[in-house]
Amino acid sequence: MQVRLHEDRLAAIDEWIAARGGDGDSRPQAIRELVDLGLSAEVVLKKVLLRLEEMLPAADPELARVIGDLRKLVQSTLK
Fold first, then answer.
1. What is the mean pLDDT of residues 17-34?
2. Contact at 8 Å (CB) between 56 and 67?
3. Which of 47, 53, 55 is CA-nearest to residue 68?
4. How far apart are CA 28 and CA 37, in angstroms?
5. How far is Cα 61 from Cα 63, in angstroms, rounded to an integer?
6. Is the CA virtual torsion 42, 67, 49, 44 positive or negative?
7. The pTM of the whole model exceeds 0.70
8. pLDDT of residue 51
9. Positive or negative: CA dihedral 5, 10, 12, 16
10. What is the DSSP string of 9-38?
11. Closest CA to 27 of 35, 17, 18
């Protein structure tokens, strides 16, 4: 599979590699790791939101609103 990226994305990947110490990571390896991180983050965010909803006192509408806003943000970010 081939992927084409704009120069700004390639620069961001190179910066990510350098920030990790540039320990010999190639761009393809860095992209694989970044995809894994992104997919893992999605799972973690969904679990955190579910846990917050379980812990939420039903009588606190302000907390319910905040968690609802977080859920919308996560869903729009992951689309």
1. 86
2. yes
3. 53
4. 14
5. 6
6. positive
7. no
8. 83
9. positive
10. HHHHHHHHHHHTT--S--HHHHHHHHHHHH
11. 17
